[in-house]
Write a structure and sequence with these properties.
- With 177 residues, this protein is α/β, with parallel strands linked by helices.
- It has a single domain, classed as 3-Layer(aba) Sandwich (Rossmann fold).
- 32% of the residues lie in helices and 31% in strands.
- It contains five helices and eight strands; from the N terminus they run H-E-H-E-H-E-E-H-E-H-E-E-E.
- The strands form two sheets. A six-stranded mixed β-sheet has the order 4-3-2-5-6-7. The chain has a two-stranded parallel sheet with strand order 1-8.
- The N terminus is likely disordered.
- Pfam families: Pribosyltran (PF00156).
- It comes from Streptantibioticus cattleyicolor (strain ATCC 35852 / DSM 46488 / JCM 4925 / NBRC 14057 / NRRL 8057) (Streptomyces cattleya).
- InterPro entries: PRTase-like (IPR029057), PRTase_dom (IPR000836).
- Keywords: Glycosyltransferase, Transferase.
């Protein structure tokens, strides 16, 4: 492949993706927060789905003046395009008593299959006063249709926090109970 053809192939591959930069993330999360505020929803708790949802939840927490943030560790993607059969909650799992009768905003970076969001939504359902989901991106095949979405896309997404390889590769990062 010549350099010119290689460049064209690289450009085409890049064009087939959503490229979220840190500055664009800042704009996206502010607009997402404004959508939540305009809807009149005032969450008591923001429940982030780690890891990508940590960035979204922290930014939404500041924008919506919510200091009570919780983390739900869910593993679903084993690698690019490689998923487990079903998402799995990893310890420590939040105590439902802490969520009881609260208005909860579940935050994640993307609703792809929606299986992770469904797991977390169902975990909260029946225990909380209200549970709603906020994501930067939602894909058409998502099982969960989020109440708050910055952008809908069917393309692969390059997030600024995961587009670069890790500085250090560590094996066996799934935590045992």
């Amino acid at each position: 492949m010549t350099d010119r053809n290689h460049h064209t192939a690289m450009t085409t591959a890049a064009e087939d993706r959503e490229n979220l930069t840190y500055p664009l993330f800042g704009q996206a999360v502010r607009e997402l927060a404004q959508t939540v505020a305009d809807d009149g929803f005032e969450p008591d708790i923001i429940l982030s789905i780690a890891r990508g949802g940590l960035f979204v939840a922290g930014a939404l927490g500041y924008a919506l003046d919510v200091k009570n943030l919780h983390v739900m560790n869910v593993e679903f993607y084993a690698g690019v395009g490689e998923t487990l059969d079903m998402p799995v909650m990893l310890p420590p799992v939040p105590n439902v008593v802490d969520l009881s009768e609260k208005k909860v905003l579940v935050a994640d970076d993307v609703a792809d299959t929606g299986k992770t969001l469904k797991l977390v939504h169902d975990f909260c359902a029946g225990h909380v006063a209200d549970v709603r989901c906020a994501v930067i991106y939602e894909k058409p095949q998502s099982l969960v249709k989020c109440e708050y979405v910055w952008k809908r896309t069917d393309r692969w997404i390059n997030f600024p926090w995961s587009v670069e390889p890790p500085v250090v590769r560590r094996a066996g990062q799934v935590l045992d109970a």
